[in-house]
Write a structure and sequence with these properties.
Layout (H helix, E strand, L loop, with lengths): L3 H14 L3 E4 L3 E2 L11 E5 L6 H13 L3 E6 L9 H8 L12 E2 L27 E5 L5 E6 L14 H17 L3 E4 L63 H13 L6 E4 L6 H5 L9 E2 L2 H5 L4 H17 L5 E3 L8 H4 L21 H17 L3 E3 L22 H5 L47 H4 L6 H14 L8 E2 L9 E6 L2 E6 L5 E2 L4 E6 L13 E2 L3 E7 L1
Parallel strand pairs: 1-4, 4-8, 8-9, 9-10, 11-12
Antiparallel strand pairs: 2-3, 5-7, 6-7, 13-14, 14-15, 15-19, 16-18, 17-19
Protein name: Alpha amylase
Family: Belongs to the glycosyl hydrolase 13 family.
GO biological process, one term: oligosaccharide catabolic process
């Protein structure tokens, strides 16, 4: 699975790539039931990844290279192996130990029977199946139920308990004292539940997307309780949930804002909040809350000029209304990689994972579009987040065998939802080494998820210094962005902007960005030259380019 020393070893690669910061997914002590998002101890590094000394060395090295480090914070739930939850299991109903989590007596299967055989409410897990599990009493008899909006091994914390608030503030300070620069807050729209935990006839999803929302005849929304059922997106079809985007989360982030302020003005939080519309997401980045929030509207727009332009407008307007910077992201560890999505017959679809019997993408087309979308995102004002390996043009592992999968969503839905393993396959560093160089050079251990053969030609050592490679395109685009301070700029749509014809055209400072998502070549306007193109155009030929091909984007400067 890699380790912190491995991260340190690859910092020169990131420095050369031209990024400003690194966000690390959880490396805390964990049984790894959900890729580390089931935390057993927030203050310890899991031995799988090294030690606190390894973390400190990595952080010091990163800072020496001008790289900031953001760590993942998981405040909605812990692991079932966390000391708090183990104490809760040993304690009696109504005890202080149980009050750190959400324990409730069950409902009677027959009213008045007192057997508590039904779950406290009808909520369903984001990972599939019911959101409640029952524990046994000291004598082995059935006892109370506990809430887990994700896997059974991820019990939800009770954020009505002041002790939970104080503990998480202490965790923030622990890592801030070590020198981290910020936090990515997992499920930032969760944590607070509606009073009384009312029934809800909806079905929440890990990732809002464009799966079909059609239900069988006569089937009501939210009627699914079996683990076999695939998830369905909440909004706009279903009513607001009683456990996401509750007003109380904002008090938590105002409190955390004050904690970060104790460490100076340059510490930050970024919210992972699947919230819509954009105006509601903007509430998480008001001046006294977080500094940034992931912009999933842009990610969900797909390869479509009208959808992308609308997402850009809505996102910038919402962020501007609260004086916050916007963020731009095309892929992450919960979504099918965008080179694969953009290569599907409908490049605006948003599958929840792909398997061998699903439609397979046109890899060349998807990569061309992905490279063009990258130039768009890196020219927009605000912060750009890159997912590991997208600088290599990595596709989704769309044929990963069932026996290799590890995502709990795959198992809890009995394969109805393919899950996120396909985007989490380890990076290829060297084409000719075992595990493409991800494993130790002295070990024959296989990576935790198998890599497809298609990763070989995309390995970093095959692209380094290779003109026209995706890696070199990212380096050039990041250098261009930094040199012209595009992240601190502003957007103005150009007269050439025609999203209904598939053309995006905007200005940021003295740079004109032209992206062709249509069906015919778009001419370069008079008085401009191509400074950078997403297509593999040799540098010496850029000045002669007269038009932008389909599925290509360019940065233009005045002659």
């Amino acid at each position: 699975m890699g380790d912190l020393r491995g991260v340190t070893e690859r910092l020169p690669y990131l420095e050369k790539l031209g990024v400003d910061a690194v966000w690390l997914s959880p490396f805390y002590k964990s049984p790894q039931a959900d890729g580390g998002y089931d935390v057993a101890d927030y203050r310890q590094v899991d031995p799988l990844f090294g030690s606190l000394d390894d973390f400190d060395a990595m952080l010091q090295d990163a800072h020496s290279r001008g790289l900031k480090v953001i760590v993942d914070l998981v405040p909605n739930h812990t692991s079932d192996e966390h000391a708090w939850f183990q104490a809760a299991l040993r304690a009696a109903p109504g005890s202080p130990e149980r009050d750190r989590y959400i324990f409730r007596p069950g409902k009677d299967s027959v009213p008045g029977s007192g057997d508590g055989n039904r779950a406290p409410n009808n909520w369903k897990s984001i990972f599939g199946g019911p959101a409640w599990s029952r524990v046994a009493g000291p004598d082995g008899s059935p006892g109370e139920w506990y809430l887990h909006l994700f896997d059974t091994r991820q019990p939800d914390l009770n954020w009505e308990n002041p002790e939970v608030h104080e503990e998480m503030r202490s965790v923030l300070r622990f890592w801030l004292d070590r020198g981290v620069d910020g936090f990515r807050v997992d499920v930032a729209h969760g944590m607070v539940k509606e009073k009384g935990l009312p029934d809800w006839d909806g079905a929440a999803s890990m990732v809002e997307g464009t799966h079909s929302l059609a239900l069988p005849p006569g089937d009501a929304p939210g009627a699914h309780t079996d683990a076999e059922e695939p998830h369905r997106a909440v909004s706009p079809v279903y009513p607001p949930s009683p456990f996401f985007d509750q007003e109380g989360v904002h008090d938590i982030y105002r409190n955390w804002h004050r904690v970060l302020a104790e460490y100076g003005s340059d510490r930050m939080m970024v919210a992972e909040a699947w919230v819509e519309p954009a105006e509601r997401l903007a509430r998480y980045v008001r001046p006294d809350e977080m500094q940034q929030a992931f912009n999933f509207d842009f990610l969900l727009a797909g390869w479509d000029a009208e959808r992308m332009a609308a997402a850009i407008d809505a996102s910038l307007a919402a962020a501007s209304s609260v004086g916050a910077p916007c963020t731009w992201v095309l892929s992450n560890h919960d979504t099918v990689r965008h080179p694969t999505r953009f290569g599907l017959s409908d490049p605006t679809t948003f599958p929840k994972g792909l398997a061998a019997d699903d439609e397979q993408p046109d890899s060349a087309l998807g990569l061309a579009r992905a490279r063009a979308a990258t130039l768009v995102s890196l020219a927009l004002p605000g912060s750009a987040y890159l997912y590991q390996g997208e600088e290599l043009g990595l596709p989704e592992h769309a044929t990963l065998p069932a026996e290799a999968r590890q995502d709990p969503t795959f198992f809890r839905t009995k394969g109805a939802e393919i899950g996120r393993d396909g985007c989490r396959v380890p990076l290829p560093w060297a084409a000719d080494l075992p595990g493409y160089g991800f494993s130790s050079r002295h070990s024959q251990a296989q990576p935790w998820l198998p890599q497809p053969e298609s990763f070989g030609p995309l390995a970093a050592d095959q692209q380094e210094g290779e003109e026209g490679s995706t890696l070199e395109l990212y380096k050039a685009a990041l250098a261009f962005r930094s040199g012209r301070r595009l992240g601190l700029g502003s957007l103005e749509w150009d007269d050439l902007h025609a999203p209904d014809a598939g053309v995006l055209a905007f200005r940021n400072g003295d740079v004109l960005v032209l992206a062709n998502m249509g069906f015919a070549s778009a001419p370069i306007p008079a008085g401009y030259r191509v400074a950078l193109a997403s297509g593999p155009v040799p540098a010496e030929e850029l000045a002669a380019v007269q038009e932008v091909p389909v599925d290509c984007a360019v940065y233009l400067e005045r002659v």
